[in-house]
Structure formats: C-alpha cells, structure tokens
C-alpha cells in the first residue's frame, strides 16, 4: 500500500478538508477547507505529518518524496499558469510549517521561494519596479539563510546598515535599485562565508532545503521542550504547506487588506475592513502607510471619500461582500480575513474566527440566533466568559487609553485582579480613603498590600492598587467580591509610606495626584482617562437606566436566560452583607454559598468588642464580650435572610486567626488599652502570643471554635435567632451552618454538638423551630482523604478550593508571586492553580471527597465556595464531579451561569 | 438457652481465664487467670459484660440476676468460711467495674461493702481495734454515698473537718473511736439529707445498688465522650467484679506490701519489695509510715536488721518467693505484685507486668533468655523503645532529682524534646555559647526559640532550653539530631533579652547562674544535680570504656544484635556531617537517608558566600558566589562519603527559604554590607523582598532550584565531584541525589535534567563515572496523589512526613502549640501527629503514594526520612507499607533497629 504524501488544494480537485488536522496540520486542513468551498485561496499543496514521522526515523526526506513534490509543483504551475523558476510568469511559493496543534519553536515561514537572478527580469516586467524585485530578492536571501540554513541574521543586518551608511540614507526604503544590488552582492557573500557554499540558484534546491528545514525543526530543542511541557506527543509531526505567492504590490491594480465580517468592536452586521493599494500584507500592519477603509460610508466619515475599496475596486468589493456572506454561512461565526488583490483578482489568504469585544460577542451571537444562522445553544457555547467580564466592568475609552500608552502616561503594569477602570486621587491608608470619600472625593486606595482592617477603605475607594500579592491575595479576593477595579502585585511601583508618596516610572505622586487604573488589563496611568460605566450594571444594579435603552443589556439578559434554561448546576454567591446579597440576586444568584461572618467584625463599632473578646483571659470575660457581639451578628443575619428570602444561605463560623483582629500600630494599641482599661504592655504581649510563623496553617477555622467554644455558641445563637425572627415575618429561611477548616471528623462532631445544643435551647425557649443544615468545608487535604468519616456528620460539603489548593500543592498564595508565574510559564502547571482548579492534583482529592462523601451519605449536598467557583474551566470540572452548585462573588454570578450552561452542553 | 451471668473464681472450680476479656473485662479475666494457676487471690465472682448490655436495653438489672448474685455470695461464703452481713467472721466485699478496655469515666471501686452496725462488733473483735472498724465504716459510707449514689463528696469532708475542729485535732488519725462515732452519725445525716432515704443497712441492698451503679456508669456522659473520642463501641459493656476483702490491718500477724520479682531499677534477679505490719494497701503508698524491706539482706543494709518480712514472717516470705518464681514462670516477665497478709495468710491482690528502668529492661530480658524462660524474639518484642532512649541518655541521679523536686529547685517543666540531662551556666546567644565553650565552660543555651543561625551555639552547648516551639520545632529536631539534651516550649519561663536574664518560678537567673535540664522529663532545675553518662555511648562513641566493664552495654548490644537478625527493614540515619555519620554507624546505621546540604552553610566562613549568592542580582553574580561555595560543599561530601564507605548516602538539594540565611539584626546587616561592598539599604530591601507570610508554603525546596538552577547545578557538581574523588580512593560510594518539595512531576524532571547534565559533563571531563540514583521526597500531598507520574522520573521516594503531615492536616508544627496538645487530649488525634504518623489521614496518602509509585515503577526504592523515622509506632506503620528503610537521627538508630524488629515480629 502506498501512502499519499501530498494533498493538493485550490484546483478543481482539492484533496483535503478541515477534518484532516492530524494528517495535514491545522493550517493545511484549513487551507483545504477554504479551497473546497470555492473560496479564492492561492492554490498549493500540503506534505503530510506522516512524512515528518518518516523523516524523523530515517533522518532525511523519504525516498520518492521530491518526485511527488515535483508532480505537485507541476500541478500548481498548471493551475496558476505560472512557471516555477522561470518564464514570463514566474511561480514563487511560500513554505510554512503547520502542526496539528499550534506550537512555537519550529521553522515558521519562507516567502518568495523560487526567486533567483533568472526570474528577476520577468518579475520586474510584471511589477514595473526594479526596486521591488531586488528588495524581495534580498529579503528572500536573508530569510532563507536565517530560517532554512540557521545562519546568523545579524551578519545580514550588518551589511544592510553598512550600505545605508555608505549611501548616507536612514531607511531601508530610501535605498535605490542599484543600492539593493550591492546589498544582494554582500548578502550572497555573507551566505557563502557562513554556509560554506554558494546561495542555491536552483529553485528546486531551494524548495528541497526549505522542506527539509521544516521537518528538521520538529526536532529542535525549543520545540521538544515545548512539547514536553505541554504533554504533546513527539509522534504528531508537522506538515509542510507550499503555496503559490499572491502579490498585492505588483501595481495600482493590486492591493492587500484585512477585514471582519461584522464590526468587531460593537457586533453590528456591517463589514469592517481596511486595505492599501499596491502593498503587501506586512505593510498594512507596519503602519508606515495609513490604510483606507473598505466601505464607502466609512471613508466618507473619515473624509476619505472616493478612496474606499468599494469606490476604487467596485467589482472586487462586491466579490468580497459575497465572500463575507459565504464565510459566515459556512463557519457560522464572525470571520477575520486577510485578502490580496493581484491585478484586480481577489485572493483570500486566511480566514479565522474573529476576536472581538464583549459587546460584539453578545450582539453578534444574539443577532445570529435571530437570523437563524445558529441555535441558542451555539450562542451560549461560544460567548467567552471574558466577554461578560468586559460587559460588567467600566471601561477606559479605548483610543484615549491607546494614546496614553504611547505618550508616557502608562506608569506600570501589574496583575489584573478586579476588572474595570477607576480613577481618583491617591489614598495611602484605608482611613484616609474612607474620610475623603465621605467628603465627596474619588480616591484610589494604594497600599503595599491590604489586610482585613482595610475593608472600609477598599469599600470607599473607586479602585485598589497594591504593590504586592497575587491574583488571590486579600486585595484581589475582596475587590472582586465588591466588584471593584483592582490591580495587584504591581512590583515596579514603590510606596514610601513615611512621606506618603507613590514612586512609579521614576516619578513621584502624592495624595493630590490623580491616577487611573484598569483592572481588566492591570495598567496604571497618570492622570485621568474617560471611563464608561457598564450599561448592564446601570440597568440591573444602579437602576439608572432602562433595559429598553440598552441593546447590550438586552443581549446580555437574552444570553443568560438561554444559559439558565440549559444549565443543571445551581449558582450561589459569596456574600457577607445584605447589599452584596441584593447585587448577587440582581445578577441571578440562587442562594449564598459562603457568608463569612468575620467580615462583619471590622466595622469600627464592632472591632472593639471583638478585641475585648480576644484579650479576655477567662471564659467568663470572653462570654461577656461575646454577649455584646451577638445582637450585632443577629442583626446582620436578619438583613441577609430578608434579602435572600427563601434562597439557601450558607454561613461559615469564624475562620481567620485572631491576630487579624488586633491592632498593629503602637498608637492604636495605646488607644485600645485605654478604652479597655488594660495596659498596653498586656496587649502587646497578647499580640506576640498570637503571632504565628505560618498563619495559614495556624490557629484558625474550627480550631478557634474548639479552643473557644463560646465563639461558636454565640454565632449559632445569632444565626438561629435571626432565622427564627425572619421566619416569624413569614419568610421561608434556609440557613446552612458551615464549620471551616475541618481535617478530622471529630472536630466537626464537637462543633456540631455546640451548635445543636444552642439551637435546641433556642427552639425550646421560643416555642418555634426552623429547619437548618449543618455541614463543613472541605479545604484541608485530610478532610478529603477521610470524607467518608466526615460525611457521617455533615449534611453538606462545600469545597474551599483556595485553601485546599494551598495545602495540596504546599504553596502559599500570598508568597507564590516569586515562583508561580514562572511555573505557569514553564508549563509545570497549565494555568495558575489559584485561578483554575488543578484538576490533575487537587482534582484527585476532590473526586475522592465526592466519592467517599456520597458513599457514606448518598444525598449529601455538594458545592464549592472558593475563588474557583467563578472560573469557567473550574466550573466545568465541578459539573463533571456532579456538584450541585458553585458559589462565586456577586459580580462573577453571570459568568458562572454562562459557564455552567457551557459545561452542561459540553457533557452532552 | 440460658446464658451464664456470673463467673466465679478462687475456689476449686474457677470458671474464667485470661482469654475471656471481652466477657469478663480485663480485671475479671486476670483475677480468674490468677485463681486458675492457684495463686492465692481472695475469691470472688465477675458479672459479665453481657449483663451490662441487657442492663442498657431494659434500663435496670435483668430479671433473675440478683438470684444468681445470691447464689454466688453463698458460694463465696462457703469458700471463705465467712458470712455476708453478719456472723463472727463477716464477709465484706469490694465491688469494682472492669471493661474489656481500660477506660476512665466509670464508677471505680467500693470497698468494705457489707459493713453495717450489725457486723461492727465482730469486726472489732477480730481486729482488736474499735477505731479501725469505725474508720472503715465512715469511709464506706462516704464512698458508697459518693460513688454509688452520686452524692456531693464535699458535704462529707465538711462534716469531718467540723468534728476535727471541734476536737481540736489536725489529722484524721488523731480522731478517737468516739470521735468517729460522731463522724458516722453526721455522715448518716448527710446521706439521708441528700439521698432522701436512710443509709442501707441491709448488705444485699448495698450490693444491688453498687452493681446497679457500675452498670449505669457505663452510660454516663464522661464515659460516652471518652468512648466516642477513642472510637470504642458502646456495645462492649463493662463487667462487675465482686471480691472478698482481705485485711492486712487486723493485727500484728497481718500486713500488706508491694514487690517486684526482680529489681526494677537495675534488673537484678532479686525480689525487691516493701511491706508494713498491720496496715492496709493505701498506707504503704501514703508514706505516713516508712515501709520495711521484704528481704533480710536489704534490711541489714538499711540498718533495719530483723525487721524484714523474711525475718518477721519467714513462712510467708518463703511462700512469697515461691509465688514470685511461679508468676515469672507463668507470665514470663518481671511482675509487680500487691499482697496482703491476713492472720499470716498470704493473699495476692494484683499482679501485672512490672514497670522498670531502661537498665532493668535490658538486663532482665537478656537474663530471661539465658535462663531459658523466654525466646530472643520475646525479648526483642518486649523491650520498649523508651528503655533504649534512657540507656543512651545521661541521667540525673534519681534520688537527688527527687529531692530537688521537693525543695524548690524545680523551676519549670517544658516539653521533653531531646532526652538526657545537662547542666551549665546560661548562654543567651549562640555566639556566647560557642565562645564560652571554647574557654572551657559548660553552658546551656537558653533561647526564645532557635533558628538555623544558632547551630554553632547548639553544637557547643551542653543542652538547649527554649521558651517556645513544640516537639518538632527547630530546636527539638536539631537537638535530637545532635543527641543533645533539650527542653522546648517551656512557656512558664521568660527571657529578657535586653537584660540577659532568665525569669523562672519568680526568680531571675543571669549568665553566671548554673541550671540543670532534663530532656527526658522536660524539667528545668536551678543549680546542679549529679549526672551519670550513658555507658553505651562511653563504649561505642566516646570509647572511654570497654564493653567488658559494662553489663548494660553488653545487654544493649545483645538485644540489638537479636533485633538485627529479625528485622527486614533497613535503618538509615539523618546526618549532615562526617561526625554525625560516624556516630550513626557506631550505633548501627546502614546508610544516610537524609543529608541536609543547607546545614553546611551556617558556618561563619561559609555564610558570607551564601549571602552573597542570595544578594546577587544577575545569574552571573550568583554563579560567581556559588563558585566559592562549591569546593566547600565538595569537601563536606568527601568527608561524609569516606565516613559512610560503601553505604548509600542520600543527599537532599537545598531546601530552606533563602531568608533563613540572611542576617536579621541591623548591625549584622551593616557588617555584611561592608564586606560585600553593598549598601545596607539594598540588603534590607532584599530581606523585605524575601520575607514571606507562610514560609512553610513559600519559596523553598525545589522551587529554589527551579528559579535559580545555578544552585542545583553547583550542588550536583559538588556531589558528583566528591563521589568521583572518593571512588578514586577505592571506596564503593553510592550517592543518591534527592530533590525536595516536589509537588508536580515536571518540577522533578526539570531539576533532574540539571543534575544529569552536570554529572555527564563531569564524567566526560574526568574520564571516570560513578553510579548514582536520582529521586525525590514525597512531602507535598500532590506528590503522593500523583505518585505514578512522579515515579516515572524518580528511582526512589523518601517520605518527608514532617511536611506531609503539616500540609495534609493544614497544621504548622511551629504554631500548633496553641491547640494541638488539646486536640490530643480531646482524642481528636490519638497521638501528636508530628510524633507518630497519623495513619488514618496522612497514612492514606502514604499508601496511595506507595501503590501508585510501585505501579509505575515496580522496583522503586521507598524510605522515610521525617522525624517519624525514629518513632516506634510510625516504624511499624512503615513496615506495613513495605518501605525498604527508615531514616532517623543518629541517636535514634538503636530505637529504630529495635522497632523494625518488633514490626517484623508483629507482622508474623
């Protein structure tokens, strides 16, 4: 049996199609598909990945391959009417690699192959430009020498500079045809000197060498490392694509351009494109000449009437519009195309699904459903989560931001921790942020890193900027929960907290200076840039706008309604206040998956009682302090229960280490000492006692409740009291009490006893009961390992994947900044494990916990409340595990709804 | 079918034996066994645990039980010739609970049951003492009221005090018979007032109530909690033992005593015991009268000639010696007995395996093998690990220490972190400790807690005392590694580091004051107490004594030689220096399981280069600094390889976070800045950058080697260079390079590439090769979960159970002091999981790692190098997992050898 080494495309008998990626590579299969549906792609052929495999075995091109290549070139000559290596219409080709999976490290592209002294004359005649032909030639020598032969590229650049200097010119395009002849002479000499042979004049030699180089590059160290890190088999191999060149720069009846079948910025159903007359593809991108619009209407808007493609090449324009319609019909999505016009003949060089703004995603997909082009489920499947993030965030005016990036206003780039743009003057402390906001100022809170004590300042500020911390640092987590723009880990800035000065990009900024941050990109700018608010939030949260005015809000609602019909997993939210709860409900939350009781303690009037509790030396003192806190907690819970109505509310008992509640600074300690009638020394001693080497693994979570059962009792009473009160108002409350940081079932049993005892006592006292659930977080590896034991005592599990990831990987998210980014870059982890669940490590523990939990208690309720609950790929994994719900911060709820629907569709 | 409710013992037809623990409880089965082999135990009977189960079901004594009890009492009357509740020889009994598993929380003991006004006269006649009978009576009322009826004990005490005050006497025994009549009257009134009924005069009522109380106590809350925490089934039930009382205080032909069949302090084959004439058991213990020796020889030594049991009751003495021989023959171990002589008749009240010193353990067991009493394997099975710990540690003179405990010299008690006693003046800094030791002083290093920078001071000091930290804190781990006496977590002491003063027990101690610490008990004393050095170490390590002089060293060697013949697991050691290696070999180590390369960097002349490396800003600077370190490391490794010879040596690449190497204090930073020609500010900045929130989970382990591959390369070169050098000397070296903190196989692969590249380069350069292994620690949960992937790249796994426990449980051992001790006390964990492997949590991960590792690489070598490697119960678990070796600190090697043999015997 003989295998077919080569697949031809672009004549009447295209041999491949888009299903043949493993044999033809991604690029080859796509070119074949375009040719197959009669798009005008320049013809060519693809040498299969099988040939690559045989190449690796024998260490060279397999016998007979070049015979097949010659036959295919002959077929190409016939199709194009051009001649390879000569004739009045010389056939030049491009040679490109194309593996089944896109990967860097391999030989990329050689253009203009086939060029030599022999064909230059015909080329010159065809183009009417001796300069153009010579410039193409010298570029080909350089590209071939560098890419195919691996010669030192600098040596060529050096000669080019020398000739320019010699001629006293600055730019490449200032060199004359004669100058370029000199450059070519010198290039030939460089080639000969380095390669030890003269430059191949024979186009067949050129072609064989290029094919050889592509296959050889599959085995180069960079490609091998990339494959190993990304777990790609060495056996896949790469294909080689040989394609006829099309020229947009052979005269004024030629041109080149790019375009989108719909507007990529707003999704409107209008072709959006730009082109240049007598130019090559790279000229459009290079920005030396300003491209012209494709559509006449657009040209008129830009005072370029008469210069559009529609006006200059009306026939080509009509053909292009026809092609655009055909492409959308075939690919069923907005396409991003590259085209070339060679002597008024249109060639399509590439088509791919268009990148677009969130706005364009929603508008285009809902429209395509209306047009009957796609199904609702297609729309739901395709809209990326980032699109919703963009829609929900305030955004910088794009063109102004772009200018700011180039005119020196861009100060630094940190991690994009909370999407959206914000601006204001600088507040260096939380108190200052709160105070100045009260006075009506807009401020950006700028901190080294934030702590729970900064909450009021974060809440007051327009946005948050920190110099340290990663995407799951305190600042990042809290900001996302609040829906605040936030940039963290901006390590190039310095904060001089003594002088209250921010030092960035070598400049100093004081509290009076305005800055703008973009939490979607991580950028920090000096001064202000126009910001547009999210229309969806204006409609749903701020209620300052009606949905009728807002196309984008209508599209948003439509997509999410479709998603809700499709998804099977519930969506809850992490919310600590009635306000959070209301936002989350407005965005579609079906319950609270995590209410952190500790955030309630940082209010100025409450922290004192909390501190008094911590500083108590006896259980009696502790209980007295807790008695002050209990009514405050009950009031919080009443507010949340009322906001949530009949939706379930999971409340976690106290979790953070106690030292987080104590003051850090000397003056604050003095103040506290006075107000409590204690000595400052005693408070300092207690602070020292509570100091921990590794607070993450210290005295926190249920360990607090076990050592100080009074705390758990107080919280149980506050929750049950509030539930009874709100139930008496006729609301069908569903509290779920959750014990954190359980690693051993005994911890849960002991805490459960405390809760049940208080609940029973209250039921008896009030002659009224309320249903409540009692469960635990699964966030300590040991709890997952012994989930069968734990499930015997818990009616629900909620995965706390932040801590579970920290402990399973042995990585503190606060300290991971010094290595984790590199880990992701090296491919050790495919993504930041704190952003997307590490399914092959942490995921094993989660699967164990689900299996063992269900084995011990088949109807156990399973959810997740870590940061991963708002991450689409993690949500997909949760769906695979069969969790009943995911819980995420309020502003991530829409994303979770969409991702859950996508997961449901994917599992079909 | 009728079940037998009651089992009788002590007449010619004893019905139970020691195999019937589940039916008769531990105590009942043991009493039956003693009776069965004709030991003179007072007769009695046991009501079965089955009856308890029925009691719990019906909530009371089953029908017909009291009939069986009456029949058994009749049988007891017949056997003893006494009458229950009357007659000239009244039968009094004790009633005791006895579950199959010893457990607190249940009703314990009622003595003298059957006493009432009616039998008092006969009792008085028999004893000749009205005072004795009345005192017994009032005690019985109090015990019955308190234990059986649950009445308030204080009310009785209150009346007793009132009568004493009234009579103007101080001690109970100063009360006359008439006074006691008054006490009894008042007790009766208290009983009646609280119980609402008069005290039962009828002995049958007394007996029924006592039996009822025992069964009821099985269900009391404390017992239930205990069972739940210790996972004991509620269905086990308790038995009730009713036994005839025997009196040692009925006259001068009576007595009571305790004794050991061999000397419990040195193991000599001589009965060792004490007794009192005309006394009850509690009198011997109470210490009001001084007991007399059993043996005449001993009496002569104490100037008590003529007063020994041997001389006073020669027939009883002979009987006792016969019994001792019989007991040893039956129980095949040294027995600890209680006996009572009632009118020259000897009763054995209890026999149990004797507690004894380490010395006595070794001497008695080796002697028993010589005597043919037991097999070598019995001796190996029985010697507890603690015995060896004692033998290897210097010890305080026991009687002097005892005096010191009572005369105010005992200052504090901390955690017994490193066994042995040490004394010296106080050094408050490591430098001071080193300097004064150089000047010939003996010092105890006293620190808040130690850091790696203190190593030289710890090494110099006689012992270490810290105020903070747990049993696996830095001080504890390092001290055990060095074999130094160490007390940690001594929270009642304070160190005023400004004034250089230690404050303990309200007193201040300066650098000139002498203190003594006992790391075996955790005690800290003021001043000096005689210390005896370990004979075994004198023979094997210090070589200042010959084994021929030392019985104990001979017994030690004998037991361990037997253990070596039996065990199947290898024993390695954790050693970082040639000196450690030599000690470990002398104590039987077969290799190094963990050589920590970082400890080599804290020497004064090396730390500078290390700091320079850390402070480098470019790879080139870093490499330059590392080039200084490389020869030092190579020299270290040569020393270790030479010391270890052909034994395998596992070397771990750099593990601790870099900030551990940087100076902390300002002056030290200044000094460093000068010596490196940097600004102090730059160093402070770097220190700040390296500061971590949770260093345990931070930038350490292989994460260092991945970010700074130069370090791994340098270490690989140093190891391979040293191995080649030593191999060239004709030694068959076996280096095993171990990569720490791997959580993802890619980390290992990348580090492995670095090592292999350096090794290959050196092999080529030197034209010589050496075999080496490359493996990893399993200390991150994720590594265990993905052990199949990891094993594909590792030829060995070494469990780092310290970190594995920290991460799996989410507990920082440095911070666990505030809750872990309570956790162990509550029974949440059966033992400190940092001392003994948490087999039901961490153990699951270890089992997964072993299974998955073997599945991917069947011949993978498996070991453990955490602190648990020296813990007997953990060693047993390791044996069950099928590990090839355990590795522990040098001074734990003998214990590990013994424990491994015990594990091998247990698995048979």
Can you describe this structure?
Two copies of one chain form a homodimer. Chain A is of the alpha/beta class and 908 residues long. Helix content of chain A is 47%, strand content 16%. Chain A has 37 helices and 33 strands. In chain A, the strands form seven sheets. In chain A, strands 14-24-23-16-17-18-19-15 form an eight-stranded mixed sheet. In chain A, β18, α20 (474-482) and β19 (486-488) form a beta-alpha-beta unit. In chain A, α14 (358-370) crosses α22 and α24 (604-615) runs antiparallel to α25 (619-644). The two termini of chain A are 39 Å apart.
Briefly note the structural class of the backbone of chain A: alpha/beta
The share of residues in extended strands of chain A comes to 15-25%
Radius of gyration computed on alpha carbons of chain A: 33 Å
Helix content of chain A: 40-55%
Strand order across the largest sheet of chain A = 14-24-23-16-17-18-19-15
Nearest-integer average pLDDT of chain A: 91
Q: Describe the sheet with the most strands of chain A.
A: 8 strands, mixed
Kindly summarize this structure in a few lines:
The structure is a homodimer of 908-residue chains. The first copy, chain A, has 908 residues and is of the alpha/beta class.
Which terms would index this structure?
homodimer, 908 residues, alpha/beta, 8-stranded mixed β-sheet, 8-stranded parallel β-barrel, 33 strands
């Amino acid at each position: 049996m003989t295998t077919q080494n080569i697949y031809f495309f672009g004549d009447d008998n295209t041999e491949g199609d888009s299903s043949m990626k493993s044999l033809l590579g991604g690029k080859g299969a796509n070119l074949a598909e375009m040719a197959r549906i009669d798009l005008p792609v320049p013809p060519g052929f693809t040498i299969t990945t099988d040939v690559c495999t045989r190449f690796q075995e024998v260490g060279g091109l397999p016998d007979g391959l070049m015979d097949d290549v010659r036959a295919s070139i002959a077929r190409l000559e016939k199709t194009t009417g051009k001649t390879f290596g000569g004739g009045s219409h010389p056939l030049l080709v491009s040679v490109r690699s194309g593996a089944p999976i896109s990967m860097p490290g391999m030989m990329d592209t050689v253009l203009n192959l086939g060029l030599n002294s022999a064909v230059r004359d015909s080329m010159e005649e065809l183009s009417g430009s001796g300069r153009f032909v010579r410039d193409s030639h010298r570029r080909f020598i350089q590209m071939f020498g560098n890419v195919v032969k691996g010669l030192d590229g600098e040596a060529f650049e050096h000669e080019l500079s020398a000739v320019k200097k010699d001629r006293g010119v600055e730019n490449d395009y200032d060199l004359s045809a004669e100058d370029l002849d000199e450059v070519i002479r010198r290039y030939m000499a460089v080639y000969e000197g380095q390669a030890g042979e003269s430059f191949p004049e024979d186009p067949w030699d050129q072609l064989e060498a290029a094919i050889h180089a592509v296959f050889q590059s599959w085995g180069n160290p960079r490609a091998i490392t990339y494959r190993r890190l990304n777990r790609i088999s060495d056996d896949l191999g790469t294909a080689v694509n040989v394609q006829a060149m099309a020229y947009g720069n052979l005269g004024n009846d030629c041109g080149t351009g790019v375009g989108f079948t719909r507007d990529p910025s707003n999704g409107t159903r209008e072709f959006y494109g730009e082109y240049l007359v007598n130019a090559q593809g790279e000229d459009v991108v290079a920005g030396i000449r300003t491209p012209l619009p494709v559509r006449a209407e657009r040209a008129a808007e830009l005072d370029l009437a008469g210069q559009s493609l529609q006006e200059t090449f009306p026939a080509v324009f009509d053909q292009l519009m026809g092609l655009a319609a055909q492409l959308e019909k075939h690919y069923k999505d907005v396409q991003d195309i590259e085209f070339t016009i060679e002597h008024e003949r249109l060639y399509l060089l590439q088509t791919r699904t268009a990148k677009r703004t969130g706005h364009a995603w929603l508008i285009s997909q809902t429209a395509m459903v209306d047009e009957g082009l796609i199904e609702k489920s297609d729309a739901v499947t395709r809209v990326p989560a980032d699109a919703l993030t963009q829609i929900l965030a305030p955004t910088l005016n794009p063109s102004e931001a772009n200018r700011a990036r180039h005119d020196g206003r861009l100060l630094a780039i940190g991690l994009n921790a909370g999407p959206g743009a914000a601006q204001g003057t600088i507040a260096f402390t939380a108190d200052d942020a709160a105070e100045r906001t009260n006075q009506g100022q807009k401020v950006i809170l700028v901190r080294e890193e934030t702590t729970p004590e900064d909450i009021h300042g974060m809440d007051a500020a327009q946005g948050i900027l920190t110099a340290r911390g990663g995407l799951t640092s305190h600042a990042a987590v809290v900001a996302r929960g609040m829906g605040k723009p936030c940039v963290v880990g901006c390590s190039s800035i310095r904060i001089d907290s003594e002088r209250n000065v921010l030092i960035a990009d070598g400049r100093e900024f004081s509290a009076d200076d305005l800055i703008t941050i973009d939490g979607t990109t991580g950028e920090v700018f000096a001064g202000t840039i126009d910001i547009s608010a999210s229309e969806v939030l204006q409609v749903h949260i701020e209620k300052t706008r009606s949905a009728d005015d807002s196309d984008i809000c209508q599209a948003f609602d439509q997509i999410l309604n479709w998603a809700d019909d499709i998804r099977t997993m519930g969506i809850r939210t992490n919310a600590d206040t009635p306000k959070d709860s209301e936002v989350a409900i407005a965005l579609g939350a079906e319950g609270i998956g995590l209410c952190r009781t500790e955030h309630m303690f940082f209010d100025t009037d409450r922290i004192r009682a909390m501190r008094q509790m911590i500083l108590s030396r006896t259980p009696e003192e502790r209980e007295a302090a807790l008695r002050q806190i209990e009514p405050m907690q009950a009031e919080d819970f009443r507010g949340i229960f009322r906001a949530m109505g009949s939706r379930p509310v999971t409340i976690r008992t106290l979790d953070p280490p106690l030292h987080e509640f104590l003051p850090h600074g000397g003056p604050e300690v003095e103040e506290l000492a006075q107000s409590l009638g204690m000595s400052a020394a005693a408070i300092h001693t207690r602070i020292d006692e509570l100091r921990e080497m590794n607070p993450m693994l210290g005295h926190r979570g249920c360990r607090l409740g076990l050592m100080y059962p009074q705390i758990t009792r107080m919280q149980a009473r506050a929750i049950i009291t509030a539930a009874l009160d709100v139930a008496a108002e006729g609301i069908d409350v569903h509290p779920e009490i959750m014990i954190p940081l359980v690693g051993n079932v005994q911890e849960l049993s002991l805490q459960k006893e405390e809760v049940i005892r208080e609940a029973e006592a209250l039921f008896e006292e009030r002659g009224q009961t309320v249903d409540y659930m009692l469960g635990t977080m699964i966030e300590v590896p040991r709890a997952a390992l012994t989930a069968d034991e734990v499930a015997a005592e818990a009616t629900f599990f909620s995965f706390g994947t932040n801590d579970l990831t920290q402990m399973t990987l042995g990585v503190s998210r606060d300290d991971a900044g010094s290595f984790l980014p590199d880990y992701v870059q090296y491919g050790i982890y495919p993504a930041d494990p704190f952003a997307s669940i590490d399914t092959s490590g942490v995921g094993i523990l989660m699967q164990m916990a689900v299996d063992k939990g269900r084995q011990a208690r088949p109807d156990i309720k399973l959810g997740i409340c870590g940061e991963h609950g708002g991450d689409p790929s993690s949500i997909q994994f949760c769906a695979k595990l069969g969790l009943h719900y995911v819980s995420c911060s309020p502003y991530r709820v829409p994303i979770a709804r969409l991702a859950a629907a996508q997961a449901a569709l994917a599992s079909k």
